[in-house]
Design a protein that fits this description.
Potassium Channel Kv1.1, Chain A; single chain; four-stranded antiparallel sheet; 3 domains; about 25% helix; about 30% strand; about 600 residues; alpha+beta; Neuraminidase
Length: about 600
Amino acid sequence: MATSLLEQESCPIPGMEFIYLTETKIKYINTNFKKVKAKIYDHMCDVKLQVGTTTYKAHRDVLSEASDYFAAMFSHNMKEKKQDTIELLEITPMGISVILDYFYHGHVTIDSDIIEDVLEAARFFHVEWLLEACSEYIVRHLVLENYQEVLTLADRFCLVDLKGDIFKFFAKNISILSEKPDFYKNLSVELLSQFLRENIYIDVDEEFIMYMILDWVRTERQTRKEYLIPLLRLVRFPLFALDSLDNLPKEVLSSLEIRDAVEEAKDYHYIISAQSLKTEERFQARGSKPVLTVMSFSEEQNAILYKEPEKSAVVIEQLSDTGLQLDFEFASSAKVGNFLYALGGYGVDVFSSERVFRFDPRHREWTEMASMNFKRVSFASCSSGDKIYVFGGINHHLNNDGQEIDVILDSVEVYHPYDNAWIVLPDLIHGSYYQSAAYVDDDLYLTGGISEDPRDPVPMTACYKFSLGSLTWEPIPEMQYPRHSHSMTLINKKLYVIGGFTSSGYGTFVDSFTNEVFDIETMQWSAIATTPVALGHIFYDVCYFNDIVYVLGEAEGSCCLHSYDVKNNKFLAGDHVGANIRKICLLNVAYPID
């Protein structure tokens, strides 16, 4: 018998393998099963199980080892402990026969005719592995036949993860399933619509989803045509290629509502710079979720490490040329929507740059945007959510005599993504660099750094606020500790300042392990937990998610992803992520997970 690709794939459940006996009958094998010396039905059997009118012989020690139900029965003071025959009222002969095979041999054969019997026995005897095998079979073979019955089984036998497993199976195998002869005929509208509503990674393009809907409707047009528009509403048209949007089937465009959605998608492609302002789900790849994104873009490597917050697993993705033409280590960064911007820093000529590039986490590539008005490096930047602000910095360039010089900048400018334009704002009170900035309720806050004013300490404790309403700067209470190249994060109307460098007192800089927080309402600074020395130097770029600030710390040439627990005011050491890594951000990213 020829096998399909579905039959050839490995079982996704650890410790489980399967063999197709027929198209719908599968033998599941527990690869971690401890071999049983006793033989089923041999002369050493010491207990009988009565199920209906049928009696089964077994061994108490085998039953106790395989099932918590029997372990409790034979070890506690229960009446069945001393009985030679135990009557089982809530399972079928088929169910007990299959489960005894598993108890003695570590495998079970399941088909659609007995799945309910096996589920009933597995739940009754508390055999989790067998429940997983049943769930795997249901996902693989019963979903298309009767989705509603599957949901009933899931509810009856408390298969809490079954629905998620169904959608994962569909997402992983949708292109193979769609080629099966009766796929569209058996696929219910409930399953199809719920699958499309799930935000789950699918390894096909969005055009495939649209044509799958059309094929499903065409299979039984008279009874299904009423579902066409509701299903098309679930298609993410902005993810289509522009030429696909220009050549859609007429039946897709029969509705004004869908035509408007298509026009919106075209505008998304036409106005490239404004894409970062589109944050709704339909503009993001299916399966996108918030992940800590640790980036390294250099001549040596282009790599991204993804880590879901509060989970230990990481995914590393190696990329080819991504289009970035800046020294990523020295560029400032800011996020608008779900796009990261690399700003200025050093260009390929090793002088200050005014160029700006935007990273698209869907396509994993950089696109050049409008350049800043001034070339700058070592400057502060921040995002308001829909705009980017940059402050001061240094213009490292050649003067008219061909000599390299540094000019400390006092200029400030703002980037408008929709117009793809930079607008100059009023200058800083004093030029400065290595500062940190944050946007809070139509105000900009600037802290620390190194000033061009020789009267200021190096580095500074000075802090300033800029009102976007009145376009004026004013000084505010200074930090408790002088610092530069530090991070500053807005959390619940407070600015958390972590890391950076401070003065050694001998004309050099050392790591700053002191940290502090500014309460915007009371206008007061307070000390918070110091950074453990073992975490090393904490870099400028950090990200915040669910009361945790994630930071990159470098010690002895190794970079690790650490965290600061805001509620408990405590730093936690994290895992190694690589060398020469400086940037981290929180992006919604889609990628396959086994």
